[in-house]
DNA sequence: TTGAAAGCGCTAACAA
DNA sequence: TTGTTAGCGCTTTCAA
C-alpha cells in the first residue's frame, strides 16, 4: 500500500487482478463469487492489510449496520447487564451497538436521537414507552425501526419487549401484605416521563386496596434511582410523625441505599423497618441482610430486543413477543410482622 | 422534502437559493459565510427538517469525529464512572464516543479495534499498557492517535493518563502493616495481559519486604474482578492450613464478594479476617462493615483522557500529563491486630 | 464571500 | 460469474 494512506478496494482489486465489483462482492457476498476469485481477493486483502471503509460503505449502501440504544443510565447494574446481552446478541447478528445515556433527564433524549439519526443508524432501541412526541415523529419521519424495552406498550401497540411493572409491583405488595405489614411506604423512583414508576405505584395501590388499605400520599416518596435516593427516602420517612413498618423500593440501588442509611441511623433492618427492592441485581444477595426483591428478565430483554429490532430492519413478519415474567425473591430484608 | 426520502444538502441549498458549497459552509464553518446567507440556509434546514448525513460527511472529510474506547468490562462501576466522564467531556469537545468491552478477554481486543478502524474512528482510548503487538501495529499502520489509561507507561513513553498501581498497592500494604498484620493474603485480579495486577503484586511485595516479610505464593490468589471472584478467594484461603489475618483485594467488587462469603461461612469481618479493596466505588461505604480501600481518580482519568486524545488529534503540543494521585481510605473492614 | 466541480471509497444495477 | 459504471451526499479545492 502507498505509505501513509490506507489501501482502498481498488488497490485490492488491482493486486488480485479482478474488477472493483468482484472485489466488493468477494468481501460482501462471497457466495456470488468463484472460489478462485475469492481466494485471490482474500490474499490481496491480507497482503495489503486492507480494512474496509465504513463510511463509504454506508454512503453507498444506505445502511450502517449500527443500532442505537438510549438508556436512562449506564451505571445502574440492571441496564449494564441488559446492554451486555443486547450488544452481544446484536454482534452475533452482524450489528454494532451505539449506546448513550440521558442520565434520567428524558428531555435530552431527542437530542441524542437526532445525533444518532445523523450518524445513520439503522434502528433504535429505547427504554420505556413514555417519550416525547417529537421522538416518535423523528422516528417516523426517517422511517426508523425501533423497539421499546422493559415496559409493555399496551395502549399504543408499538413494538416492545418487556414485562408488566404493574404486575411485578402488585406481586411484591402482596408478598409484603402476606407478611403482615399494613403501614407501607414506597420509594418507586421518579415518575416524570417514566411509566414504569407510575405502573409500580398503581400496582402497589391495587394490591393494598385488595386488602382494604390505601397508600398514604406522604408515604409515596419520589427519589432518584440511586443509593443516595434511598438514603433520602429513609430520612424523609423518619422525619414524619407516623412510621411505616416496610419500605418498598423501586429498584435495588434505592433499597441498598436505604439499608445503609438505616444502619447509620441505628434502625434495625428488618427489625424496625423491612425493606424490599426490585430487579434482583447481583448485589442484592451480597448485602446484609440480603434483599427481598423482584427478579426481572434483564438478560432476556436485551437478547429479545436484539432479535426483534433486526427482524424489523429485515422487514420480517411481526414476531409477536409475549410479556416476560417476573417473580418475587424473598430474602432476609423483609420480616414477618407478628 | 420528497416523501419517504430524507432531504439532502442540495435540497437545502436550492430552497435557500445558494450553492451547495455555501450551504455546506453555513453548517460547518458559519464564520465564513455572510450573515444573510447563513440565515437563509438555517431557515431552509428548519423548514425541511434537514439532518446531515454522517457517512457522507465522513467520506468526504475523512473524519468521523468519533472516538473509540475499549474496556475490559462495562459492568465494573469503576469503569462505568470513568466512561461517563470520558463521554461527557468528549461530547463537550465535539466528539462522540463508541465503547466496547472485551470482557476481560484481552485476545478480543484486536478484533474490536479492527472493527473500529473500519468504522473510521478518529482515535482510540485503551485501558492499561499491556496490549498485543498487533494492536500497536494496527494503530501505527493507520496512524491512529491513542491514549492508554489508568496505568502509567513508564517504559515505553506512550501517551497515557493514569496513576501508579505500584504506589497505590504499596501504600495500602503499608496501611495494613501499620495495623499490625503479618499474615497477609492478596487477591489482585488476574495478571494475564494486565500490568495493573502485576504492579499491585509488586507494590505489595515491596512494602512487605520493607517490613521484613514476604508474600507467600499460596496467598497470591488470582481471581476474576467480580463478586464471585472474591467469594472464590475466600474459599481458597480457608481451604489452606494456615490462615491470613487480612485479605488485600484488587478491587472493591472482589472485596465485597469476599465479605459476603465470609458472612456465609460465619467468619467475622474484620474480627476474624480483615478485608481491603481498591478503587473506592460508591458501594464501598454502603456495605457493612464499610470497606477500607484506595481512592483512585476515576472521573479525572476520563476527563483528562478526553482532552489528551483530542489534542493528539489536533496535533497540539504533547501536553504532558503527570501521574494522578491516590489515597488510602480507612474504614471498618480493616482491624488493628493487637 | 461565493459557485462550480472534482472527488472521498464503496455498492448495486446493468450488461455482457 | 464478471466487468463497467453511475451514483450515495458531502467537503474542499480552485477561480471568480
Produce the secondary structure layout.
Two copies of one chain form a homodimer.
Chain A: H1 9-16, H2 20-28, H3 35-48, H4 54-61, E1 66-71, H5 77-92, E2 96-101, H6 109-119, E3 123-127, H7 133-141, E4 146-150, E5 160-162, H8 165-178, E6 184-189, H9 195-210, E7 220-222, H10 227-239, E8 246-249, H11 252-265, E9 274-276, E10 293-295, H12 298-313, E11 327-329
Chain A binds a DNA duplex (16 and 16 nucleotides) through helix 2 and helix 4.
Output the radius of gyration of chain A. Answer: 25 Å
Low-confidence segments of chain A? none
Helix coverage percent of chain A: 40-55%
Strand line-up in the sheet with most strands of chain A: 2-1-3-4-5
Task: Write down the CATH topology of the largest domain in chain A.
Answer: Rossmann fold
**Could you tell me the mean pLDDT of chain A?**
94
The oligomerization state is homodimer
Indicate how many domains the architecture of chain A comprises: 3
Q: Could you say which overall geometry of chain A the principal axes of the C-alpha atoms support?
A: elongated
Number of strands of chain A: 11
Order of helices and strands of chain A: HHHHEHEHEHEEHEHEHEHEEHE
Q: Name the biggest interface.
A: A-B, 45 and 45 residues
Amino acid at each position: 500500500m502507498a505509505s501513509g494512506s490506507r489501501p482502498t478496494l481498488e488497490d485490492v482489486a488491482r493486486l488480485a487482478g479482478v474488477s472493483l465489483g468482484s472485489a466488493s462482492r468477494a468481501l460482501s457476498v462471497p457466495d456470488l463469487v468463484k472460489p478462485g476469485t475469492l481466494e485471490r481477493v482474500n490474499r490481496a486483502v491480507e497482503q495489503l492489510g486492507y480494512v474496509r471503509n465504513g463510511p463509504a460503505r454506508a454512503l453507498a449502501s444506505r445502511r450502517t449496520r449500527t443500532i442505537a440504544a438510549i438508556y436512562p443510565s449506564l451505571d445502574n447494574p440492571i441496564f449494564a447487564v441488559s446492554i451486555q446481552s443486547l450488544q452481544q446478541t446484536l454482534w452475533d447478528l452482524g450489528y454494532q451497538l451505539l449506546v448513550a445515556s440521558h442520565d434520567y433527564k428524558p428531555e435530552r433524549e431527542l437530542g441524542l436521537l437526532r445525533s444518532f439519526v445523523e450518524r445513520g443508524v439503522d434502528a433504535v432501541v429505547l427504554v420505556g414507552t413514555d417519550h416525547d412526541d417529537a421522538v416518535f415523529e423523528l422516528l417516523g419521519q426517517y422511517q426508523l425501526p425501533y423497539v421499546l424495552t422493559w415496559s409493555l406498550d399496551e395502549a399504543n401497540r408499538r413494538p416492545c419487549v418487556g414485562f408488566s411493572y404493574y404486575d411485578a409491583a402488585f406481586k411484591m405488595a402482596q408478598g409484603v401484605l402476606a407478611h403482615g405489614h399494613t403501614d407501607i411506604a414506597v420509594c418507586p423512583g421518579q415518575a416524570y416521563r417514566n411509566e414504569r414508576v407510575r405502573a409500580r405505584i398503581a400496582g402497589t395501590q391495587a394490591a393494598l386496596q385488595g386488602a382494604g388499605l390505601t397508600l398514604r400520599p406522604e408515604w409515596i416518596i419520589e427519589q432518584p434511582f440511586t443509593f443516595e435516593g434511598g438514603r433520602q427516602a429513609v430520612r424523609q420517612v423518619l422525619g414524619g410523625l407516623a412510621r411505616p413498618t416496610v419500605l418498598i423500593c423501586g429498584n435495588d440501588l434505592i433499597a441498598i441505599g436505604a439499608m445503609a442509611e438505616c444502619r447509620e441511623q441505628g434502625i434495625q433492618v428488618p427489625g424496625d423497618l423491612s425493606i424490599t427492592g426490585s430487579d434482583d441485581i447481583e448485589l442484592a444477595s451480597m448485602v446484609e441482610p440480603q434483599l427481598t426483591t423482584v427478579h426481572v428478565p434483564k438478560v432476556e430483554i436485551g437478547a429479545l430486543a436484539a432479535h426483534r429490532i433486526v427482524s424489523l430492519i429485515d422487514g420480517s413478519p411481526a414476531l409477536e413477543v409475549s410479556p416476560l415474567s417476573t417473580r418475587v425473591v424473598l430474602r432476609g430484608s423483609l420480616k414477618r410482622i407478628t
